[in-house]
Amino acid sequence: MTEPAFLNDTRTSYDTIAADYADVVDDLLARTPLDRAMLGAFAEHVTGGPVGDIGCGPGLVTHHLRGLGLDAFGVDLSPGMVEVARRRYPDLRFEVGSMLELDLPDGGLGGLVAWYSIIHVPTDRLPEVFAEFRRVLAPGGHVLLAFQVGDEALHVTRGYGHDVDLTAYRLPPATIEELLEKAGFTMTARMVREPGEREKVPQAYLLARTPS
């Protein structure tokens, strides 16, 4: 099967910027208390089983989740990002993989985080992604999504000092909620906060669970 072009573009771009991206976002959670609050709430809702940080990038959120007491590991499309994550957090597990086809067993996860990682998936492919999230989560498992609010696709050609070829989607929270519910999730909580430093638009966070 031919790989979708957006996957190749995303992988290549993040391989290119991996080291510089990791340096820039290193203090991100330290500057965003509401983000930490949502991750903390997610951690308290997870009752057992490992937690996948899907689209983990350089591993910052994976590391934070482990600090909250979760058995967290990371998966990312970009081998370059996975290499950086393994180097920065050698005690954690990181693997290369696609959220469209996770190399994980059915119902094996207690929780799943997609922290600003669905933003490079075309909206018409999100039902596939959410179905895959639903497949790998155990009954009563929780998923936490973070993304920028909007309703537009932005073509990015320059990032973190490098030429890239990325499309980033700003997403309406109501639309994502509807897609989660169609995939079999029940909403637990939602938050939209105003833009912070270095941000241009509001940021959304959705917490949902699978049926018990």
What is the count of helical runs?
A: 6
Percent helix: 25-40%
- Poorly predicted parts: none
CATH fold-level label: Rossmann fold
Structural class: alpha/beta
The fraction of residues assigned to DSSP E strands is 25-35%
Strands side by side in the biggest sheet: 3-2-1-4-5-9-8
GO molecular function: methyltransferase activity
Domain Methyltransferase: 53-141
Keywords: Methyltransferase, Transferase
InterPro entries: Methyltransf_25 (IPR041698), SAM-dependent_MTases_sf (IPR029063)
Q: How would you portray this structure in words?
A:
With 212 residues, the chain is an alpha/beta fold. It has a single domain (5-209), classed as 3-Layer(aba) Sandwich (Rossmann fold), CATH 3.40.50. The chain has helices spanning 5-25, 33-45, 60-67, 79-88, 126-136, 173-182, and strands at residues 51-54, 72-76, 94-96, 109-115, 137-148, 152-159, 162-170, 186-193, 203-209. The strands form 2 sheets. It has a 7-stranded mixed β-sheet, with helices on both faces. The longest helix is centred in the first third of the chain and has 21 residues, at 5-25. Keywords: Methyltransferase, Transferase. It comes from Umezawaea endophytica.
Helix and strand layout, with pairings?
Elements: H1 5-25, H2 33-45, E1 51-54, H3 60-67, E2 72-76, H4 79-88, E3 94-96, E4 109-115, H5 126-136, E5 137-148, E6 152-159, E7 162-170, H6 173-182, E8 186-193, E9 203-209
Parallel strand pairs: 1-2, 1-4, 2-3, 4-5
Antiparallel strand pairs: 5-9, 6-7, 8-9
Helix pairs in contact: 1-4
